[in-house]
Amino acid sequence: MARAKPETERGSATDLPSRRSPEKIARARVLRHGDNQAEATLWNELKARRLGGYKFVRQMPIGPYFADFACRSEKLVVELDGSQHVDSSYDRRRDDFMRDEGFSVLRFWNVDIFKAHRTVCETILAALEGRLAEDVIASDLRFVFAAKKVGGDAL
């Protein structure tokens, strides 16, 4: 007859190793506690499924990068950028990487969160609901579309 293992031998879900490295977890924590008022303001709209019932996370690692905000179920990344990001080749490489990983990327300027708060939220909802389905490049918005794949084929 098999003997039940004591609790200390069985382990628990909290004993399981994380899928993310301790370094990435630490870096994400530092980024979440940064001093960016625009990100804090947008997070108030995205957290707790407040925007259309979609779940977002902050500072999610995707390969070597960290997404400001990500909706895993819809594979959407939302980035807020300051003026240092104008015509950034680094951001273009980053967007391409995330698209290759299956994520669409939506970029806004920090100032837009304060000046056009409702428009930013409506644009995010449009992307989540599939109403944005092609690349958009404008002075106040950049959307890099990643077609959803079904069985290895893009839709």
Order of SSEs: HHHEEEHEHHEEEE
If helices are DSSP runs of H or I spanning 4 or more residues, what is the number of helices?
6
Find the CATH superfamily.
Answer: VSR Endonuclease
Top CATH class: Alpha Beta
- Approximate helicity band: 25-40%
Distance between the termini: 55 Å
Low-confidence sequence ranges: 1-14
Q: What is the mean pLDDT?
A: 83
Number of strands: 8
Globally, the shape reads globular
Gyration radius, in Å:
19 Å
The CATH architecture can be given as 3-Layer(aba) Sandwich
Domain DUF559: 25-129
Pfam family, one: DUF559
Protein name: DUF559 domain-containing protein
Region (Disordered): 1-20
Descriptive notes:
- It is a single chain.
- This protein is an alpha+beta fold and 155 residues long.
- The protein has one domain (19-154): VSR Endonuclease (Endonuclease, Chain A), CATH 3.40.960.
- It has 6 helices and 8 strands.
- Strand 5 (136-138) and strand 6 form a beta hairpin.
- The longest helix has 12 residues, at 89-100.
Q: Which features characterize this protein?
A:
single chain; 155 residues; alpha+beta; Endonuclease, Chain A; six-stranded mixed beta sheet; two-stranded antiparallel ribbon; 6 helices; 35% helix; 23% strand; globular
